[in-house]
Specification:
alpha/beta
């Protein structure tokens, strides 16, 4: 595997960083916490995703990036002659992301887990094996220094993956212990076989006795059933005859009751029929007066209709009179408003003139006020400046006067001598001039007071103009109201005239011919004949029953004759039936006795069947327990066999672990010796490891213990790299990339320089060696160098090429 480039965007503290990897030894240098190891973490995240980094997705996105910025890491590498490109991203929330794997520009896989699985298959190792092989972590040159032989062997075995054998041995032992506990429980749960035999014998005897009793109960039930079967047809025939006797008797009783009710109803109907015939005669005698009533009723309705129209005529005439009064009133008001438009135009013109005068007055006032304020500020500032100037001149004169003739001239610094009076006179002249200017400015303030008086007069005048404008506005509003009223009056006048025309047309369409005297006579006649008319209505209503009564009398008479014939037939059938209640009671008693005996025998049979079932269940339960005993015994034998098998497996795993440990050392010695020879330019060719994994150097054929610090570094580095190569070989990968992260630990300067020199000797073995360190002094000893800086203000890291780094050291970058 050969790295080509790595791009980081918003990954932890790297907002936007990029690295192009080259062959040879590359140093990535920066202070602790600057983000050096984060570069390797981004490389691992690009390949394997979240399992290969610290923390969670929420901690991956840089805090120095813009809100909602995506995390993006792009890694390009070469493997097996092909160029692979991995792009892995996270959205701004950190909850979802994407990943893409390309080979030679073609998409190979997509999806977070899909790309991780593809990388694992491609490299032949998961992220743990990747870190163990290609990476050498912090203080790795001292990782076995403090361990005894047993701990070193365990550590090396774990790195090479042989700890899985130990885990398998421990798992076998744990399973064996669990089986032992399970076997113990099964042994305690086994039943006593002799007790099972005795219980089975008892259950079989009980079942045999129950079956014998069941056979006897079945015979008794059969005899009772035969007796019931013999009496059953006789009882059924008796039941049918009793039912027939009861039906005929009930029908006779009902028919006789119907005859009685029909005869009573027939007498009532005959009485009602006689009454209706008398009412018919009375109605016939009222016929002539009823004709007079109907004729008067027709004429009265005609006059009533005309009377209603007469009322409408009077109502419409009243409305027309009221409308004529409204029209006269509206015409008078319209005439009084003829000059409203003219008055509105006059008020509008006067208001416009008043508003113009008010605007002109406001303009004059604004100009005077602004000028007054400006002059006041200017005058006050000039007076203040002159007073300050006068104070300085007066102070200078006082100092010169106090110094006398020996004082220095304020211009040439020479003693004044005889010039003192002239100089003092000059100061006095300046003071008088300044006082005059101040007086003039104060006169200007007096003039301004006069302007204030003028402003006050204009303001008073403005108040009057405002009052006049307000009055004109009121007059204008009043004129506008009159114009509006004139229009409203005109509209109302037109509406009332239209309404008057409509009412006149309605009154002309109303019919006439109403006769009040005839209307009163017809009304009197109606009142006189109404009782006769009401009596006739009552008689007609009653006579509606006459055909109904006649029909019902005929129907009841026919029904009575038919019912009498039915009664005669029923009496004949009852005599022919010859039913005896006493004989029936005796037959029922015998049948019930036989049925009771059958029920008792059936109950006894059910009891015996239950006893047989209970006995069978007991025998089945004992037999089931017997089968369970056999099954548990067989299971116990199987568990004991499995326990023995696990014990054998655990012993075999112990032997395999010992054998693997014996095989590790020769292979580890061979690879470490080859690396040692390369790092020391052939000075040391052989590195041997004893049973305690203690390394010694063979020099000129003799074993030489490691005593110096430099030799210790060589041995530790060779041993660590040999372990990495073994892991890479087992994964089927070429071990051409070496990454060392802070491997110096607490080494002094001499030992650090020694390690760097060793790494230079390994360039023929490894195409790329990447050394991450905070030690700045090694930058001249590597082939390529990148500086990592960290900005405390923005909390972000930045990568700088070596040519950009000043000679004085990395601290000058900040």
């Amino acid at each position: 595997m050969k790295l080509i480039s790595l791009e980081l965007k918003n990954f932890r503290q790297h907002v936007d960083s990029a690295i192009t990897f080259t062959d040879g030894v590359t140093g990535i240098i920066g202070p602790n916490g600057s983000g050096k190891s984060t570069v390797l973490e981004a490389l691992a995240w690009a390949l394997y995703g979240a399992p290969a980094v610290r923390g969670t997705n929420d901690t991956i996105r840089t805090k120095g990036g813009e809100g909602g910025a995506k995390v993006n890491v792009t890694l390009t590498f070469e493997l097996g002659g092909s160029i692979y490109r991995v792009v892995r991203t996270l959205d701004g929330s950190g909850r979802s992301g994407s990943a893409v794997l390309e080979v030679d520009g073609r998409a190979l896989r997509s999806g977070m887990s899909e790309v991780s699985d593809a990388i694992t298959k491609l490299l032949g190792m998961d992220y743990r094996a990747f870190f163990t092989s290609f990476f050498t972590g912090q203080k790795a040159l001292e990782f076995m220094a403090a361990m005894d032989g047993r701990a070193r062997a365990a550590a090396i075995g774990k790195m090479l993956g042989y700890d899985r054998v130990t885990k398998a041995r421990d798992r076998a032992n744990e399973d064996r212990k669990g089986l032992s506990r399970e076997i113990e429980g099964l042994e305690k749960g086994l039943a006593d076989p002799e007790e099972l035999k005795e219980r089975k014998k008892t259950a079989q005897a009980r079942l045999s006795a129950a079956k014998s009793a069941l056979e006897e109960a079945e015979k008794t039930r059969k005899r009772s059933a035969e007796a019931v079967d013999k009496l059953k047809p006789l009882k059924e025939a008796s039941d049918q005859k009793a039912k027939r006797f009861e039906d005929i008797s009930r029908r006779l009783e009902l028919d006789r009751a119907d005859i009685k009710r029909s005869e009573t109803r027939l007498a009532q109907l005959q009485t009602e029929f006689a009454d209706l015939e008398a009412k018919q005669k009375e109605l016939d005698s009222l016929k002539s007066k009823l004709d007079d009533y109907e004729q008067a009723k027709v004429e009265y309705r005609k006059l009533s209709e005309l009377q209603k129209h007469e009322g409408d005529r009077q109502r419409l005439a009243g409305q027309i009179g009221a409308i004529e009064q409204d029209i006269k009133r509206l015409q008078a008001r319209e005439k009084s408003l003829t000059k409203a438009d003219e008055e509105q135009m006059r008020a509008s013109a006067a208001l416009v003139a008043g508003e113009r005068a008010l605007a002109k007055t406001d303009e004059i006032l604004r100009t005077l006020r602004e000028r007054k304020v400006a002059v006041e500020h200017s005058t006050q500032a000039q007076i203040k400046q002159l007073e300050f100037q006068r104070g300085e001149v007066d102070s200078k004169r006082a100092r010169i006067a106090e110094a006398g003739a020996e004082g220095a001239c304020p211009t040439c610094e020479r003693p004044l001598g005889d010039e003192l009076p002239a100089v003092l006179a000059g100061f006095d002249s300046q003071l008088r001039e300044i006082d005059g200017q101040i007086a003039l400015l104060r006169d200007v303030k007096l003039v301004q007071a006069a302007d204030s008086t003028r402003i006050d007069r204009i303001e008073d005048s403005r108040d009057k103009v405002v009052a006049q404008v307000e009055q004109l506005r009121n007059e204008k509003s009043a004129a506008d109201a009159l114009v509006a009223e004139r229009k409203t009056v005109a509209d109302q006048l037109k509406s009332r005239k239209d309404e008057q025309v409509s009412l006149i047309a309605q009154i002309e369409a109303i019919p006439g011919g109403f006769d009040q005297a005839k209307y009163a006579e017809l009304r009197r006649l109606g009142d006189e004949l109404r009782p006769i008319h009401d009596r006739a209505i009552a008689l007609k209503s009653a006579l509606d029953r006459l055909p109904v009564v006649r029909t019902e009398i005929a129907e009841i008479t026919a029904a009575c004759d038919a019912k009498k014939n039915e009664i005669a037939g029923s009496e004949k059938s009852l005599a022919e039936l010859a039913f005896s209640p006493k004989e029936r009671e005796e037959l029922i008693r015998k049948f019930e006795a036989a049925s009771s005996s059958l029920g008792d025998s059936a109950l006894q049979l059910e009891r015996q069947m239950g006893e047989v079932k209970v006995a069978s269940t007991m025998l089945t339960a004992v037999e089931r327990e017997e089968d369970q005993y056999k099954s548990k015994l067989e299971n116990l034998k199987q568990k004991r066999s499995e326990r023995m098998h696990l014990e054998i497996v655990a012993q075999a795993m112990d032997r395999l672990r010992a054998e693997l440990n014996d095989r590790i050392r020769p292979e580890l010695e061979a690879i470490a010796s080859e690396l040692l020879s390369m790092m020391t330019d052939g000075r040391y060719n052989t590195l041997e490891i004893n049973d305690s994994y203690q390394a010694t150097i063979r020099d000129d054929g003799e074993l030489k213990p490691v005593i110096s610090g430099g030799e210790d570094d060589i041995v530790n580095l060779a041993l660590r790299l040999a372990i990495s190569q073994m892991i890479a070989d087992r994964a089927g990968q070429s071990f051409s990339l070496l990454i060392l992260d802070e491997v110096f630990g607490s080494l002094d300067d001499v030992r650090r320089d020694n390690v760097v020199s060793l790494l230079q000797n390994l360039k023929n073995r490894f195409e790329q060696i990447i050394l991450i360190t905070h030690v700045e002094s090694i930058h001249d000893a590597v082939d390529n160098c990148l500086w990592v800086t960290f900005d405390e203000r923005t909390k972000t890291s930045r990568l700088i090429d070596r040519i950009e780094q000043p000679e004085v050291g990395i601290a000058t970058v900040f």
